[in-house]
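Board notes (copied after class):
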Amino acid sequence: MAYWLCITTEKNWNVIREKNVWGVSERHKNVIAKVKPGDKLVIYIKQERVDNVVKEPRIVGVFEVVSDPFKDSTRIFSSKGVRSSGETFPWRVKIKPIKIFDKPIEFKPLIPKLKFITNKKKWTGHLMGRSMREIPEEDYNLILRTTKH
């Protein structure tokens, strides 16, 4: 079983939650190809500016993958602010919720404890230009433990 940090926007988080599906762009198909049923996806919403208010990066839920990756170009995700605008994120997996956090977990306080972030000062470099990345089980467990407070 593998654990993945999935990077998205607030708008697409609503789609993920509503449709129980995770999708990535054509250029990330090699990453999602490694995803297997039973894998866990941690949904991370990147920092965004909404009406002049900066919303900090946060973790909003954990899902389990319930399908093999498949291709579906139906337009359900928003590609606003994505480098390749008009992208449909056609490489997808079906997912089921394990835990949706009532109160999102702030990401920045986790950085010092997360193993996959080796450069704590330039931590965004570990996420830039990615749609998802594998994280160690230790980091997954740390995130889940954080929700219990």
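Comment from the instructor: The CA atoms of residues 24 and 89 lie 4 Å apart. The chain has one domain: 3-146.
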